[in-house]
Amino acid sequence: MKVKILFFALLLAPLYLATPATAENPAHVKQLQETNKCPKCDLSGADLKGANLSDADLQGANLIGANLSNAILERANLMSANLVGVDLSNAQMSRSILMGANLIEANLSNANLISADLRYANLVAATLMNVNLTNSELDGANLVGVNLSSANLNGANLLGANLTGATGLPFDLPGAATTRGPFTPPPGSGTPDGRESGGSRVVPSQKTPPRRGEPRENRNNGNVPTGIPETQQK
Question: Are 153 and 131 in contact (CB under 8 A)?
Fold first, then answer.
């Protein structure tokens, strides 16, 4: 008898081991639904498809593997939230705060992220097909291996963003110039997790052509007065 019990226990063990280790806390889900505030809550694996979470406070929340497809997250605070593998396809997230959020392998296809704050967010291997990132802040973001096919990046700030291995990136971003090399954040602005930035980056263009009659830019480090033709410089 004991042998049979042991046999069935061993037979069923893989099924228990295969059960996902993450599951939402029902009390936290209820708190979010009733108050629209659940910072640092455990919402991993939660089914929030189509939920209206505009202006929600989810700072530092655990949303690993959650279903937020078609959800409304406009102006929501998701700073430093754990969104690994989350489904945010078709989500409305304009002006949302995702600074320092972990979005590894997240699905953001067709999402609306107009004017969203994604500074220093980790988007490694995320799907960003047809996403609208108009005027969004992506400076210092980790975009290694992301799929940006048909993404709208008009006016997006990609200063210091790591685009190594990214696919679907347009060759010419309006008002921006592409450069390579390591990016050093300004003093006191380091990344939340202390990681280094590097690889490809996009730097917004700051220069405008001189107007007719105005002297051209001095390219001699101040040794020759502005306006003197370069052919006369010694």
Answer: no
Q: Which 8-state DSSP code applies to residue 140?
A: T
Neighbours of 33 (CB within 10 A): 12
- Which domains, from first to last, does the chain contain? 24-189+197-206 (2.160.20)
Per-residue pLDDT reduced to its tens digit, 80-132: 999 999 999 999 999 999 999 999 999 999 999 999 999 999 999 999 999 99
Beta carbons of 102 and 83 less than 8 angstroms apart: yes
Residue (of 87, 52, 53) closest to 67 by Cα position: 87
3-state secondary structure of 141: coil
Distance CA 219, CA 68 (A): 53
Per 3-state DSSP, the chain is made up of helix, strand and coil in percentages (nearest 5) of 15, 15, 70
CA distance 165 to 196: 17
In this predicted model, what pLDDT tens digit does every residue of 169-225 receive, in sequence order?
Answer: 875 444 333 333 333 333 333 333 333 333 333 444 333 444 444 444 444 444 434
